[in-house]
Amino acid sequence: MLIEEIQNRVEQSSAVLNDVRREIGKVIVGQQEIIDRLLIGIIANGHILIEGVPGLAKTLIISSLAAVFDAQFARIQFTPDLLPADITGTLIYNQKSGEFTAKRGPIFANFILADEINRAPSKVQSALLEAMQERQVTLGDKTEALPSPFFVMATQNPIEQEGTYPLPEAQVDRFMMKLKIKYPTFDDERLILDRMVEDKPIALKKVLNPSDIGKMREVINLVHMEEKLKDYILHLVQATRHPERYPRISNLQGLIEFGASPRATIYLARAAKAYAYISGRAYVIPDDIKAIGRDVLRHRIILSYEAEAEELSSETIINRILDEIEVP
To answer: Are residues 240 and 188 in the same domain?
Structure first.
């Protein structure tokens, strides 16, 4: 297929996302970058972890997206007493028939909000993360596929760590991106005040349906990525593992305990193609990779004690890598 044909398909397919942004903008003020990253996660078939203090409309964003996509939405509040069956479901004994019947849990929905995921024990986190990876749940002797599309947005509070269960690195790696949501600006917060002080319900139009997401993914697969850009992605990931091989960042050696996994390579490529798609382009450019690089890599780099002693963050390391690795 010629690049011109792909460009036409991308423009026609992605144009509706402007309507999605417009509808979301009726209830969400600002946070456009977060909304775009969530759209990338949805259409690139990944999951998103968001870190931010309470009250920044994280729940409202995902529930609004579900409404605009006309998708099933479920919110799971993670607490220390939560059990895996509270998420996935369980078997219920039917006294009339003398048989066990499967009762599905809230995870059987299109859009899932895993609120404060770090407040539940590891066995509960594992139940969710396994479902995210396998996209299926086993109840008794039956394995049931989760709905398609299936998208998880998990949140965690960066301030209160007392009584929490931090996600292990291997499990955090299953999220395509980790986003940091910030406080609104003065003007944005004034607009929030004007809108919300009257507490009037805002009706959102259904712009798309879940089956449209599958069609978008087919178009994203057509987005062109040159071989040299694939090599650029590989160099970025390799630089997190072996900085000594790259003269400009060789001084990062000893600061990174473990670099990014192969999932980072896959997700960087998929997210870059989705970023180009939502920008209305049929081809990936280096700026697409750099734009989403921090979000894909920030939770995949484990710093050494030396880096912590120097009060360096993974953000600092990633910025150095993105700035110094040669762009094709």
So the answer is: no
